Amino acid sequence: MQNPTSIEPTRIEKARRPNVLLITADQWRGDCLSGVGHPCVKTPAVDALAREGTLFRRHYAGAAPCSPARATLYTGLYQMNHRVCRNGSPLDARFDNLALAARRAGYDPTLFGYTDTAPDPRGMDRNDPHLTTYEGVLPGFIARQLLPEHERQWLSWLRSRGHMNAVSRDIHIPVGAAPGEISDAAPAYSRDETQTAFLAGEFIRWMGEQDRPWFAHISFLRPHPPFSVPEPFNRMFKSGDGPAFARAQNHQAEEDSHPYLAYAMPRSDKGSFVYGATGSLSCWNAEDFAAIRAIYYGMISEVDTQLGRIWQALKDAGAWDDTLIVFTSDHAEMAGDHWTLGKGGFFDGSYHIPLVIRDPASGGAGGTVDDFTSAADIFPTLCERLGIEAANGLDGRSLMPFVTGGRAEGWRDAAFWEFDFRDIAGGEAERYFGLRSNECNLAVIRDTRFKYVHFTGLPPLLFNLRDDPMELDNVATDPAHLAIRLCYAEKLLSLRARHLDQTLAYTELTEKGPVKRRP
């Protein structure tokens, strides 16, 4: 017979260790929550989570597009350190991440969806098929249900439900619409047959199989384009719904405002947003963007509906009060602001994302945080909550002081993000600007008053956000703002100096051996 005193601490430890559910909804704007006062979008499931948790109103991605943004989320590092510059940039195998750390804490981290992680090719054979795509799986995760952008697993599931025409992503084209047509008609699949519903169902089935604390990451594709959604979400919003677009008078005025926009805007492809469309995004007019935004709002409602289904499943399984939930996005969506769609560049519309953390062990239910927080903060938060230590330096900080209803000393007073527009495979940006690859990048520091955008090889930008919240008037060359521009450039320089890789910088070898200090 075992000695009860020898096993009781283990029982206590297991009782206290929470389930962890990390949910990302790809390309969800931070202002598109009814809980932050959006004029038309309603998100009852996210709002319900926030009432029991903590809502972070000024949360920002660390980079764009998907791979760089997710690298920051998963590693707690800024792009300047993890160096995932574009989709297809490998993630250096030396970096720790939230899945590997959770594994050290005794979990078996399980993925539903995708992580868009390109593997480190060093030590791999050049013919390895894993080196032909950026849609790899973050080290540390096991994949219960993959769903990369080709969506073949979901299409196969649709065929098993009688949709014999679900053989390609043409299934997204609304019934009766021509390929490339902007239409609020519904596709052939129903609200219960979306990619979101498919992944939610796979997670719920898996959860019912678990008999010990679990760690799951559900990575939903929606509301990422193509912009198409089934009934009733397809006509839930009208083209005139929503706030005024933040944009110049027309496409040309927007392009003329900065050399980067003159390069990027005409090269944005319609087919990335409406399935089957061809040509430049610059051909769409104001009515087109309004129609697309209405569909985007409907896609958010569709995802929120499935989040509500997950909340109910957790409650039905008796797991709600044992589960730490983090809901966020990788990056946001321009949604017609500045006459564009998608993500990238420097505007807030690409980087302001939602974050809600609900910890059942916390006393901070219903809290709202107005401090600037970063995707880089998620990994350190999980480390503190689970009692584990990252294997390398981190740029983010734990959000647990906010989650528990308190404050964090010496917290940042600005948001910071980066964007890299190099083109390693084709060299198009480099040729256009006459720049080297390592000069095709920008960095942003943004507080409540001003936003400074520093380009390595192009002119800077400065926006007075109090007078110009839509970011339309660049005052970087205005003599009255030159001192402010210098101040923010110095702030950005100091921030980058503070966050240079610190993995071994906090270790010193002495005559008594290594001395290690953690900030």
TrEMBL record:
Keywords for the protein's UniProt record, in alphabetical order: Hydrolase, Metal-binding
SUPFAM superfamilies: Alkaline phosphatase-like
GO MF entries: metal ion binding; sulfuric ester hydrolase activity
Domain Sulfatase N-terminal, first and last residues per copy: 18-388
Coiled coil: none
GO cellular component: cytoplasm
Keyword Membrane: no
Pfam families: Sulfatase
Protein name per Swiss-Prot or TrEMBL: Arylsulfatase A-like enzyme
Organism: Rhizobium pisi
